[in-house]
Fold this sequence. Notes:
- This protein has 284 residues and is an all-alpha fold.
- Helices cover 65% and strands 0% of the residues.
- The protein has 14 helices and no strands.
- It has helices at 9-25, 27-33, 41-60, 65-80, 89-94, 101-116, 123-145, 150-167, 186-191, 196-201, 205-224, 236-239, 241-254, 270-281.
- Helix 1 (9-25) crosses helix 2 (27-33) and helix 3 runs antiparallel to helix 4.
Amino acid sequence: MPIGVGASQDDDAALAYCLGELRREDRDRYLTLLFAPKAQRVVLAALYAFNLECARAVTAGGEQPLLGRMRLQWWRDALGTPSEKPSQPVLAILAKRPELTPELEKLLAARERDLTDGPFAALADVIGHAQDTGGALAALAVAELGGGHAAAAGAAGTAYALAGMLRAIPYQALGRGFQGRLCLPRDMLVGEGLTPDDVWTGKKIAAVSGCVRMIAAAAALELAKLRDLHGVGPALSPLLHGSLASAYLKRLAKADFNPFSPNLALPPYSRPLLLSWRALLRRP
């Protein structure tokens, strides 16, 4: 896949690596990337692949938090002291854009909080974490494309992150396959008479679903910020995170907000069709 006029073979190889990783492990963002102008796909692919590496570090920290923090620190050090020609393909692209480093370090810090901080206290903390991860990533991506819509992209990315956190509840207990802290905050759990252990036993699904419903409503409020967007131009690609978030939230609602339902994923064929339709409408 070409990446723009003047691209080097090294850039092509680095892009191919990033796209391959995303295609395997972050197919949603891979698909949204295909709707970005070719000239900007290199940096967007590197940003998304960097985010994937952060997520992998959190997963690695599920059984050994220190290991996860060490992996995040490796990326922090690599960004802070880039070599002249990095061998790691993601760094090979990002090294050419040192002005992105402060924002990438913020993403690292946000991911590290999944390994160092205690449980979320309130819904505002959960939303804040989604803003600092998925929201910040989408805003970074839209800034690369120009044409504004940074706030809308942040809202789309935040909603997508919240939907993802809800779907990941079965994997939010420390251990193998860890995907971050339990996204149901303490005050919600107390209000429903739950403990974190109750969530994973599956014995109080109605109460768990009540908590999930409240966070899904917060995600829907983020999506409402996209309702009147028209003619978004080149900014469309990261805004499509909102289309995916909406689709996942609908699946969750159909499952009565049970995060353990086996039917929360979107069928493989439906995602490209959904994104193509929204792109045709030029609306997220």
